[in-house]
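Protein 1 of 2
SEQ + STRUCT:
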Amino acid sequence: MKANVDFPKRSKNSFIYFQVGLIATMLVVLFILEFNFEDKKYKAKYIPTVDIPEEETFVYNPAPITKPQITVKPLVIKSPLTQVFKITKEEPKKEDNQTKLASQDSHADNQSNTNSNPIVNPDNTGKVETPSEYSPFSVEQLPMFPICKGLSRAEQKACFDEQLAKAIVKNLVYPEEDLEAGKQGVAQVEFIIDENGAITNVVVLNNRRATLGMQKAAEKAVKRIPTLIPAKQGNKEVRIKYTIPVVFKMQ
């Protein structure tokens, strides 16, 4: 292999070139550093501005979800309304009833051997009769409930009417068939409070204003009135007749 004879010469030249280049570079840098550069200030003719429009804030208010209300029609239950208002005076309408009641009173008088308020028969001056029953307006002492005892006559009558109505309403049952059919009516009930204060001779008068069921219900309610303090004429307990209207009315 032949050795390269020019290698040392080339190495020396390259070192010289490196030094020359380094010196040239340093001179250029020194020139740049020492050079007086003029600072020029530029004034902007206008400053650009950007207008950002203010938008209204959007607030989302959703409407509340309302469930449809289901209206349920109330069930109307017809409840019976029974009323007992006033006590009316009625004379017996059949002579047979008068004869029957007179015979009963005559028998009661024979047992007690006492007579009260005798009535002289104009046809026979020797025959004395006693009335079969009295009316509430002719007796000295009205029949009464025990709670009404000790009151004046006017207060006693008002108390009697009130307690009598309560006693009837308590035991009165509205007929189911009439209630379902929506029927209303007034039943006239006639009864006698005897010498012992018991309710007897209960009769429903056919006034065509009440159904058969109403008449039976009214009769049953009157029969269940408790025993009262009997009416008195003088010192004797007497029979007294009443007629009351029992009203069947739905609310």
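Protein 2 of 2
SEQ + STRUCT:
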Amino acid sequence: MTDQSPTSPVAMSRIQVRLGDLGLAKENLRFHEPADDGVPQLADTLLAAGVVIPPIVRPGRKGEALFMALDGRRRRFGLILLRERGEIDDDYRIDCLLAETPAQQAAAIVLPNTEHAPVHIADVITAIGKLRKAKMDTQAISTALGYAELEIKRLEALAAVHPTVLKALRQGRLTLKQVRLFARLPDKKQQAEIAQTALDGYFQDYQLRAVVEHDRATVDDDRFTLVGMDRYLAAGGRVASDLFGEFPDFLLDPEVLQGAWRERVQPIVDHLKAEGLAVFVGREPGYSAPDGFFRLAHVWERDLDEGQKTALSDARYQVTQLESALQDLDPSTEEAPAQLAPLVSAFGVAAGAVLTRSKIGAVLLTPSDGHGLA
């Protein structure tokens, strides 16, 4: 007895068939059913986007058309209606899959479309773009393609990306999630350049994400913690939600956010100045020390004398006490800055606790997580 390996199914070849050469095979399970009321809508879709799902055909036999559709009955009805309207003729070419073997023909008759003719999402996106150019509204496209209206809106945004992006998606070089990142880039040339790196095999997801997120403020911005939505909107700030629901809400007016944050930290600035400190305010961490000052060096506790250790311990304890008292503080409340001011002072005391020949003379306030500043 010998083992026999199962034979892999033979893939159907893709061919183009003239409409005038395409008949409907009697094997089609719905051969005797007439065209339904939805065929005119389908015809409009076919005219705008073409035949997205290739019908499966077999070679015609004696007395039949050159090719006979085993599936795609409604698509054929739609094309015939377009021919009757005079919008296409018998020479209209249709991409089809040719079922030559009995096994292929049997599969074409009994399997649902989703099993024997899967449609790549890139083709759906392209079809939506064509339908939109044909002035079809979202509801009509939703009905035609069988997608929810929200999903149509999301895919429509993808239809506007550079063709190179969809090419990379179709080839499996990009994921749908990555294509959604491309849709957020307004520069089509930049889209094409980055997508080409995917086709060439050296695309890096984090680089695309960095380009998309550059200079975009969201509700996760550290400054927003202290400002809050109500205060931002009252100052004239605008908000936009991400169409794909993958990013936090965007703050469209970063200068409004910066101005509101600057106003919020002013009570802290006044408090620190009253203690004799010079106060500087920056947009982000990473600034060097202002002229006339220097940054504190890292403290190695093993190098401290007992007096310095005690001073540092006491200062840190005071910070801990204040942080515990403020753990339930909502930074966006009106009184929050005044309540945070003593804590900022305590951080300054702790930072300078080990100094013997100099003292803390200046504070640089910048946005930070937690309470919204550091």
